[in-house]
Structure formats: C-alpha cells, structure tokens
Amino acid sequence: MRTSLVIMAAGIGSRFGGGIKQLAPVGPNGEIIMDYSIHDALNAGFDKLIFIIRKDIEQDFIEIIGKRMEALCAKKGVEIAYAYQDLNDLPEGFTLPEGRTKPWGTGQAILAALDVIHEPFAVINADDYYGKVAFQKLYDFLQDYNPSAPNALGMAGFVLENTLSDNGGVTRGLCESKDGFLTKITETFEIEKKNGGVYSDTAEIDPKAVCSMNMWALTPEFVDTLKKGFVDFLSPIEGNPLKAEYLLPTIIGDLLQKNAVTVKVMDTPDKWFGVTYKEDKESVIASFKELIAAGVYQEKLFSDL
Is 248 left (phi over 0), alpha (psi -120 to 50) or beta? Predict the structure, then answer.
C-alpha cells in the first residue's frame, strides 16, 4: 500500500540562507534536519513525499531541496508532490480578516494537500528530528489502514525530557492515555528545564510525561474531517481573528472528547533535535556526529538506501 509522508515546510522564510532554521546545515556534508527525516521515512518504507510550501518560496525550495530529493526518489520509485499553503485559501463564503498576516496553522496546512493525499499518511514538521523508531512505528501502523475504520489514527509519543531545548522554552502537546490510546492532549507553552526540574509557564511537569511532537499517522478520510472542521473554526473564529490558528493537536483533542476518533500512541525512545533557538545549532551538529559515530547513519547520508 502506498504510504505518504507529508512534510509541513510552509513556515520556511522567504529569504533562504544560514538564518533560516529549517535550512541550517547540521550534517557533515551540509545535510539539514529535513534530510534525516526523509532518509528515515524512506528507510521505513514510505514511498511518497508531499512537501507543503508557499508559492513565494517554491523556486528556491525546489532549487535547494526539491531537485535533490527528486533525483534520489526517482531512483527509488518514490513519488514526490507539492502542495501550497495560502493565507487566502478559505472555504467558500469566507474572506481573510482585515489585517491578518499569521498563517492559519497545521490543520489548514494539511488541507492545502487535499488534492494530492489519496492514501494513509504521516505528517511531520520540516524542522524537527524525530528518529528512526517513530517513522518505522508509524509506517507499520499505516500499513494496517482499513477504509472501514477511517477514524483510527496514530501518534508518535515522545518522552518530554527528550524533547526540550537547553536554550529556552518550547511548546508541546502533553498527552494522557489509557491502554495505549490517547485520551487527552493539552497544548502547553514555554516548557523548559530550570531549577533541576521541568516547568511550563504555569506549573511543574513530570519530565517522563508523554508528549506529541506533531508527528501523526492519519487516514485520507481525515482530510475531509479537517475540511468540515475548518468551516466550523471560521464560523465565527473564537478568540483573536488575527491570530487564532487551526492546529492539529487541538483538532484531534476536540475529536477525542467527542469520541469521534481513536489515536494509538506509539512510544519512541528517540531524542528530538531541533533548531528552535539559534544557540541550539551547535548541539544538534554534535548530536548528529554522535549518531554517525554510533553507526545510526552513514556519513554520506543516503548511501545505505
């Protein structure tokens, strides 16, 4: 069964260069974090890549990332597709609130790929490193996709302390589960290590808590659920119409409360890497060096595929 990896890359800035965190070189040959995610996905068995970008960065994205991936994937029989997230891409009858410049969030990002998602798929952020285990578990889960159970979803569950930056606070979806299935997800802000513990902006948190890193296993039918939900989100927008976002953790959390979906939690021991802050870059480079030295990756990244 063809299985897609959807990479949300619309957040990449319109000016490419060393200042764009998604394009910061972190590997020995200039590899970026996205390269490692693609490697792990192809190694797990994914055979279609969908890049969600913006039209204004299309040319640069294809030159810097797309052409390399197209050449690699052509040899492997892996399909590549592009989708374009646009602030003005709204359902019929809705218009952009005056003064809005903020993107609509990850839910709308997936909707941008409506015409190219025809199979079960995983979704990731472009600038997060997830590790090999999570990709393999999500791929295996998606291979059991059954059209008669379109609301059976999955999520990679990370240990919170493995996902923190040494340089500032991060946002994570804190998860509660029962018998291996998600029961609640709470978007929690400004989580950081301090005073020997882990704290959010409001309370101390168990460092061993399971959290979401926006790595989901979803069904093609779920895109229709997102489409209907986006209309509800806009009718009317709750909160500030210039900043409110249609976010996957919130969407799935609401569906859980309505018993409209099930979400299997697939625990992963891997440590997250990301360049949330510019100070993170050196530690990420060091972490990839350690993985290469341990034989997790070849120095020439795709040489083992």
Answer: alpha
